[in-house]
Amino acid sequence: MEVVSPELNSLLPDEIMDTEAIVMDDEPHSESPAASGQSLPSEDTPVPMETDVPAVPEIVSLCSDAPPTQLTQALTTSTPTDSTLCSTTSATQLLLTPSTVSSSPLPLRPATASNLTCATTKTTTSISPAGISLTSGGLQKLSAPFTLSANHQIILNKVASSSGADTTRSPGITTTSTPPGGQKFMVTAIGKSGQPIVLQLPHTGSKPGSGQVLGEAKAHPQHFKVVTIGGRTDLKPVMVSQAVSSVSQVSSLQAQQLKTVQIAKKAQVSSAGPIKFIITKAVNSKGLTAQTSVSNVITGRVLSTSSPVTPPRTITLSETLSSTSKIAISPLKSPSKVPSSPQKSVSLPLNMAHLGQQILVQQSTASSPAKVVCSQSTSQPMKSMQAVTVGTQQFKTIFPLSTPSNVQQIQVPGSRFHYVRLVTATTGNSTGQAASPGTNSSMTAKPMVVNTAQVRMSVPIVPAQPMKQVVPKPLTSGQVVTTQTQQRLIMPATPLPQIQPNLTNLPPGTVLAPAPGSGNLSYAVLPAQYVTQLQQSAYVTLAGSAGFSTPTGIQTQARLPLNGVSTSDTASRPRKPCNCTKSQCLKLYCDCFANGEFCQSCNCTNCSNNLEHETERAKAIKACLDRNPEAFKPKIGKGKEGEADRRHSKGCNCKRSGCLKNYCECYEAKIMCSSNCKCVGCKNFEESPERKTLMHLADAAEVRVQQQTAAKTKLSSQISDLLTRTTPAITSGGGRMPYTFVTKEVAEATCECLLEKAEQAELNHQPQAAAERMVLEEFGRCLMRIISSAGKTDCPSINC
DNA sequence: GAGTTTGAAACT
DNA sequence: CAGTTTCAAACTC
């Protein structure tokens, strides 16, 4: 099992949660203490979370009664028949995916509830036609998972966790039930302990939901209802897949460090049933205002509610409206940060034409950073890209990768970072791909032709903590090990006020080195220009993205604010290529690296500042941050009112340049030295005559350059215009241009005429000016004759 | 273009 | 923290 260490959270912004590999359990009901214990996050290394309550992965999944062997096969192999893949979980998320329509009413049984275990590492959920069992992947036990009332209500009764470690963690319940009517609903509830959650089911006619055979196409669209209850701040992804297969997967999230919203995508493509991807945000465990937004997805039914703190609650399931395959992500802002922010839901359909799938990004709340983790499972290695917008701004960008990687870009509103996740899931993977803890992935399938790898986004939880390389824990025994390679990239690009305090220390890139046997998970924080790099291999920009400017200039790299120059300013200029030879462009000597950029079109040798050396780059970043936590911060702080207040944060140390050469960082930034500087013989101050002289010279030179440039441009334009206007004469007239008649003979004749005029003037003792005038006039006449004869004859004659 | 100068970054 | 070394850009020829 892949485990995200506590460091991971510290590396990534709070707004985006990441989930680790989906835990695949070879057994439907894992009760292995060892596994659970291993998967448990270390208590000794608590990572500050966005919420005060330590996050604990809580997963309640519906497990089929099928024999373990059957389940194992279903989980470990990605079969087209698997219609449901449910994974995920952030700390207290519970995901349930009903995969099949069960004819038996109220499939949930107390007997299965007893199967709930505390094994966090293993959680498997599947629904068999015969019934539904619950397997708790979380640390908590559900002694009485829920009760079913006569009036189509399901009451979830949260019971205090059995283990001591569990008691400190917020409870979360997610359950799925398949009512008799074949309707399915999902409940993702993370409420307070001991508080029941009541779900009211709509009265639907029971259908003969006979047990369906795996791979059997569903004639009837599945209805899913997702209910999010609770007060947790964590985003809760809920994936609902078409109720085709009887196997669903639930990966338990290792724990407390991960706040994640995952979009599990099922590799399976179903021909008939509607596909629903629903991601809801988990309610705040702290009891703060929890907002849950659930986007409507295709035929599924999604119930969204802003969950107040106090359960029990009765929720009425509502119909969803969408008609196409979509993935809905509704990242919610942390209630702790914005307790009372009105729920805001924005759906951004992503047209992934080449993938034949759409991703719907739903934004639930405005300001709070959202944590979104999207995981995709696929039976076939593919390339997929997803763009997820978190926060107030939305954007969509699809990056077709030349590599078998998935790119998912997330922009957090107000953040200067773009978060882009690259997921490389290649090798043949089973439906139950290895997933990070807390990741819940499920795919539905129909319109979605093929799904690729898991896409995940991560956000550091610990503020102001430098990015660190995180090595996921190796998979534990008994877990499904996949050969799938996963890359995770997080790209900073745009400002995000909400999380900026946490991101200020973020290095331009971070790579989470894969742990042995962990499936080669890697994380990277990349500068925005990385997006550009990716786009060089042709990209598809999704329309309809509001507030997101798709990078169009391939050569232009977005840069972090450097030397007080705004990003837009720097971005407008072509980046200067570096010439590093010894530093591998992994030290601050390299401007590219120092600016958080990848080397691109540089002259460097042995460069490691690129995607191919993510690990090295991450280490270098970490090293730089260890030396100086503010290494990647702009050196020139922008003053309150204009450039006058701009000053170098550290100041320069010039000794011989007088701070009047570009050696001086202050001078280079076109600012004057300040008290921060330790320079000797500084001449870079306001009243310095040397500085003024240099400035004047520089201005004059710049003016000259501009004039020359303008003149060249104008001349080029005129020439171009002339050629454009004369072109018709060439083509339409069938003749040649006048100048083509200036043959050697014509030129000689013209010269003779001119000389004759000059001689005449000389013989007449005319002044030089008059002589010159005569010559010029004669030259004009010659030209006129040449031009006039151009269209008459091929051999114009010049006669004086 | 090669060589020198310079100062930040890295190292001790 | 200070001194030294390394490094790449800036500069000079």
Automatic annotation (TrEMBL):
It is found in: Nucleus. Residues 167-182 have a biased composition (Low complexity). One of its GO terms (cellular component) is nucleus. Residues 27-48, 161-182 are annotated as: Disordered. SMART domains: CXC. Its main location: nucleus. Belongs to the lin-54 family. This is CRC domain-containing protein.
